[in-house]
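Sorry to interrupt, but I need a hand with the structure work. Could you write out one complete protein record for me, on any chain you like? Could you add the entry underneath, on a fresh line?
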Amino acid sequence: MDFKGYQGYQGYKEQGINEMSQGELLLLLYDELVKRLLRAGLALDKADYDLFEASVDRSLDIIRYLDDTLDMQYPISRNLNRLYDYFSFELNRVKAGRNRIELDRVKTMVNELRDTFREANKTAGQELAGAEAAPAGTEAEG
């Protein structure tokens, strides 16, 4: 791909990201986190320790970003903060000891959290669509 084509592709990706809702962006981050944890596990199985460490480091970066963007005025944010601290602690232990059992434990918890956020985002989208449809329906009746 030439430079102009690459710039066009980058612009297209940025536009797509800029048009996403906060919930969709959160799910994108969680999907990437799950992917990196999966990659870390596969790399560990193959004894590819460079890829393993890079994958764990990227996972830690994503968790750090998720933690940094919490709005602490909400009680759930404090709970998520503690959970992200736990993930970071465990992943650092995983990285130091190349511990597959702990990696799988964190991966399972991240998967469950992602699925919870996916369901919440879906529910919020349905509620928003219902709220937008209700005024339209009342206008047609009136």
